[in-house]
Design goal:
The structure holds 2 protein chains of 2 kinds. Chain A is an alpha/beta fold. Chain A is built from 12 helices and 15 strands. In chain A, the strands form 4 sheets. Chain A has a 7-stranded mixed β-sheet with strand order 2-8-7-6-5-3-4, with helices on both faces. A 4-stranded antiparallel β-sheet of chain A has the order 11-12-15-14, with helices on one face. Chain A has a two-stranded parallel sheet with strand order 1-13. Chain B is of the alpha/beta class. In chain B, the strands form 3 sheets. Chain B has a 7-stranded mixed β-sheet, with helices on both faces. A 4-stranded antiparallel β-sheet of chain B has the order 10-11-13-12, covered by helices on one side. A two-stranded antiparallel ribbon of chain B has the order 8-9. The chains are: A alpha/beta, B alpha/beta.
Chain lengths: 460, 495
């Protein structure tokens, strides 16, 4: 019964204490005309055995296909310890750590998380998380407006080689405050954002530029050149990065040749021990330089001492937040993605720098194997030549959608069809492989693709 | 002293030994040639500072940290406005079936009919319990749902060419996210007062509305723990002035199955599924802030939404279906795993369970209020019924004994109870906002009252015992000023 423990005797005693004749009387302040007549649209309840059976059937309907899709969400090995600990009731069923003395576990964990993600990105400070990578780009753009005091324009450059969903979310989120997001084209030869596409903005008032590394196509941008160019023109650099790749690639804190690095770093933390789970819950991370910490949105944990001088942890710099500053807060964010940060912190502890580097290297190597194998199929070739991390774009000689449908029928999810978002590329497919894919998985894909290509209708 | 030492856990980096690691979790080491194609100038030169610890050390460290937390599974957690009810284990177990966890967000609909069916049915059930016409599930927290709601109100006015409407009216008792959200949507905030009985001051409201009014953001029952009795009049005043009504559904628990925001005249609502629908708070999230709307706001809903085709196949609705949508607020489908948990909870409760939630949450709150009043504590609104929560004010204790609401809150921790919400809402001095929820037994409520009585006696006889609390927690009160002035936000190696 709705997990309610009351016995009839309890209810009777409680009503007597309150001094009412029945539970109904407790609702006598609600106008009678507004009372609910029926909830017929909600089915009758199920017990745990019944719901277990229903959910298992639903899950089976979704199957467990072999997945080569990336495009912002990546399948990685997740050690059993990660979720065994994360789902402990003491983490899972705790609230936001407002009562610090009763929340030292969560608070210390967030402090450890902040330490790890700051080091991974090469920055000074981290917050306790944002919703996801997409919304983190929106928050970073709003933060850049506050922090880049030289700029008054609210103009943000966002290359087309950045995840297009991130751009859409940034517009939907920050557009209401007058921010304008301006596209920067990419080269269809290299899949990169060329410096000469930026030159026309030289001398204009631009607040920030978003740089994604690796970019949405999986290609590696010349981040040093773009960072130097931006800083030379008083433009903030918002780096969007994949945390796994940072075990191999230069952290944004070291981008550019002047030693200044990116100003704000964001990304989706999903690859760090968070399952794909149809898109969420994931978490967004954000790090920055110490000088901008008071412009940061979201919660931040600090280490301090108690009355007796013992070390302890607490939420700090709360004057930035909505519960203090109300309409003048840095953001309206309140609840964040704490439990996913718990998982990521345990994941990073288990992997360490060495394990994470091996994961990145294995993903890179597998992705190269995949691209080589698929490019050997007739009618398929690579779109761009430069280096990539664990995703790459393939061009087909015929429409991609029917091929993907055909592959799915064979239990293979072949990648993300780019033709709607990037029609100028032609029949383009974004594919991904990580350390979770074996050579035999790749062979299965190649075999299925051969069949699918034969059955697909050749484009006119 | 030994208890305190047991309560101290080193920062994980302090367990590190160079060369140690949870090696069973790592992929095999590859020859350097495997990454030789990555240009040298793009390569990392110094490894990140991450722990170097074994799997067992990691498990022990984080398990020990977990022991330093209060949680619903371990403690009564009567945190007002947060609805800390039991999170049924089935919701977690069946949301974490391997097929659900492994499903890529961009997997085709052919490999998602099970998941999409759950999402569609969740939309339908939320429509029914709120009395709204359509629901979107993607906002990822209460504040995110608020953002979607206010953005839809703005989009609605804009679509009608009604461009001057940029003011959002907010009662002064409102949660801080309400005004912060209005600002994020580019609106101006106008705060209006509430009267001595906790209802909105209708004169002030009438004076505040006008041709610039975009809408009003209301919580009902309000953050004062009472039902806004003249809600129909509020709706009429705002609608007559051309504004829309926004319902902050953070506090839906008390009215579940009893009264529906749609029937009260609201145009848009967000629901904190991590409160009323029992998904876990996770130490600060993830939440889920689904939004429901009346017919006139339906075209502006955020994407994606799940639709049902005549062929009884489920599919994602996109910009093609809703060209006036306010857009996308998340990378994919919001906090899908949280939504699955809420779905399982709602299916387990069913329609009878929904009504029982509202009834027993209200019973528990009124019982606890009565007992505390009988014990001599002052209710902030003594003439009113409690909804799912209520406010005790300790301003008398603060004045006479110099013992504050915060002192009571900290001393409650020593009694094994999480503190109620303190100093919110801001307009009630020295307040404790107490929400027991329906899943707590009478025994627990009685024990809480006993603790409050004991603390009151202590406050009279030995006040420093209360003002210096807590005494039994892993740490004593922390130096927040030092935390903000001498910022220590990450661990650094000492050498």
């Amino acid at each position: 019964m709705a997990f309610i423990p009351h016995t009839a005797a309890d209810v009777e005693a409680m009503l007597a204490t309150i001094g009412v004749s029945g539970i109904e009387q407790l609702f006598d302040e609600i106008p009678a005309s507004l009372r609910v007549k029926s909830l017929a649209g909600v089915p009758v309840g199920l017990n745990e055995m019944q719901i277990g059976r229903l959910m298992s059937e639903r899950a089976r309907a979704d199957g467990r296909p072999l997945c080569f899709i990336g495009a912002g969400a990546y399948e990685h090995h997740i050690p059993s310890a990660v979720w065994a600990i994360t789902t402990r009731g003491e983490f899972y069923s705790a609230y936001t750590p407002y009562q610090a003395e009763a929340s030292q576990g969560t608070l210390q964990l967030i402090y450890e998380y902040q330490s790890m993600i700051a080091s991974l990105t090469g920055m000074d400070v981290s917050n306790a998380s944002l919703y996801d990578g997409a919304s983190a780009v929106a928050e970073a753009s709003l933060m850049a407006v506050r922090a880049n005091r030289k700029s008054k324009s609210l103009r943000i450059l966002i290359p087309r080689a950045v995840n297009p969903t991130y751009r859409r979310v940034a517009i939907a989120t920050a557009g209401n405050q007058g921010l304008r997001f301006e596209d920067v084209p990419y080269s269809v030869e290299s899949g990169l954002t060329p410096l000469d596409s930026l030159e026309k903005y030289a001398g204009e008032d631009i607040t920030a530029i978003v740089i994604q590394q690796p970019n949405f196509f999986g290609q590696l941008e010349d981040v040093d050149a773009i960072t130097d160019w931006a800083h030379a023109h008083g433009i903030f650099v918002i780096a969007v990065v994949n945390p796994t790749s940072l075990a191999l690639l230069r952290p944004p804190g070291e981008w550019g040749t002047t030693g200044k690095g990116a100003d704000i770093v964001v990304g989706d933390g999903q690859p760090l021990g968070v399952p794909l789970s149809s898109g969420g819950p994931y978490f967004g991370f954000m790090t920055t330089r110490m000088e901008y910490v008071r412009q940061m949105p979201g919660r931040i944990v600090g280490r301090t001492v108690d009355l007796q001088g013992r070390e302890g942890f607490t939420l700090t710099l709360q004057a930035r937040e909505q519960h203090i500053r109300r309409a003048k807060a840095t953001s309206n964010i309140c609840t964040n993605q704490g439990l996913l940060v718990t998982a990521a912190t345990i994941y990073m502890s288990l992997m360490g720098a060495t394990g994470l580097e091996r994961t990145a290297a294995a993903s890179h190597a597998r992705a190269k194997d995949l691209v080589a194998a698929l490019s050997s199929v007739k009618g398929v070739r690579r779109a761009f030549t430069g280096p990539f991390f664990h995703e790459a774009v393939l061009l087909f000689d015929r429409p991609v959608a029917p091929i993907l449908t055909s592959l799915a029928g064979r239990g293979v999810l072949g990648g993300f069809d780019l033709s709607e978002l990037y029609p100028e590329l032609g029949y383009a497919l974004l594919v991904c492989a990580t350390e979770t894919k074996s050579l035999s998985d790749i062979n299965s894909y190649v075999t299925a693709l051969g069949d699918a290509m034969q059955s697909a209708v050749r484009a006119a | 002293m030994r208890a305190q030492e047991r309560n101290h856990e080193k920062v994980i980096f302090e367990y590190s030994h160079p060369g140690r690691g949870a090696t069973d979790q790592w992929p095999q080491e590859l020859p350097a040639a495997a990454t030789a194609d990555l240009p040298q100038q793009l390569r990392r030169t110094r490894p990140p500072v991450l722990p170097e610890v074994s799997e067992l050390e990691t498990v022990r460290h984080f398990t020990r940290l977990s022991h330093l937390n209060f949680s619903i599974d371990t403690h009564f957690y009567p945190l007002g406005s947060c609805t800390m009810k039991y999170n049924p284990k089935a919701c977690n177990q069946y949301a974490m079936l391997p097929e659900f966890l492994g499903r890529h967000p961009l997997a085709p609909e052919s490999h998602g009919q099970g998941f999409l069916a759950c999402m569609f049915e969740l939309q339908e059930m939320l429509k029914e319990v709120t009395g709204m016409q359509a629901v979107a599930l993607s906002p990822m927290a209460g504040a995110h749902g608020e953002f979607a709601g206010v953005a839809m109100i703005r989009a609605y006015h804009r679509s009608r060419g009604d461009l001057a409407r940029n003011e959002i009216i907010v009662p002064e008792a409102a949660h801080g996210t309400n005004p912060a959200t209005a600002t994020m949507c580019g609106c101006v905030v106008r705060e209006i007062p509430v009267n001595d009985e906790g209802d909105i001051d209708l004169e002030a409201l009438t004076a505040a509305v006008g041709p610039n009014t975009a809408g009003i953001m209301l919580t009902n029952p309000s953050t004062l723990g009472v039902f806004e009795r003249r809600i129909e009049e509020v709706a009429r005043i705002v609608h007559t002035a051309g504004g829309l009504l926004y319902y902050d559904g953070a506090n839906l628990n008390a009215i579940l199955g009893k009264v529906r925001p749609g029937d009260m005249g609201f145009d848009v609502i967000h629901m904190n599924l991590h409160k009323t629908f029992s998904t876990p708070h996770g130490g600060g999230g993830p939440g889920a802030g689904a939004v429901g709307v009346s017919a006139r706001l339906r075209p502006f809903l955020p994407l994606p939404i799940v639709g049902l085709e005549e062929s009884s196949r489920y599919r994602w609705l996109t910009e093609k279906d809703l060209p006036q949508s306010i857009g996308r607020l998340s990378g994919f489908m919001g906090n899908a795993g949280v939504l699955l948990r809420a779905y399982i909870y709602m299916r387990m409760l069913g329609r009878e369970g929904m009504s029982q939630v509202g009834e027993y949450a209200t019973l528990n709150a009124n019982y606890l209020l009565s007992r505390l009043k009988n014990a001599g504590f002052d209710a902030a609104y003594p003439s009113r019924r409690a909804s799912h929560e209520f406010i005790i004010t300790l301003k008398r204790q603060a004045r006479e004994l110099d013992v504050t609401a915060m002192d009571f809150a900290k001393r409650l921790l020593d009694h094994g109870f999480h503190a109620p919400t303190t100093y919110f809402p801001l307009l009630v001095p020295e307040c404790l906002l107490i929400e027991p929820t329906e899943t707590e037994s009478k025994d627990i409520l009685d024990a809480f009252v006993s603790a409050m009585i004991q603390i009151q006696q202590e406050a009279e006889q030995e006040p420093e015992r209360v003002t210096s609390a807590p005494h039994t927690m892993p740490v004593r009160r922390l130096d927040d000023v030092r935390a903000a002035k001498q910022l220590d936000l990450r661990w650094k190696p000492t050498a």
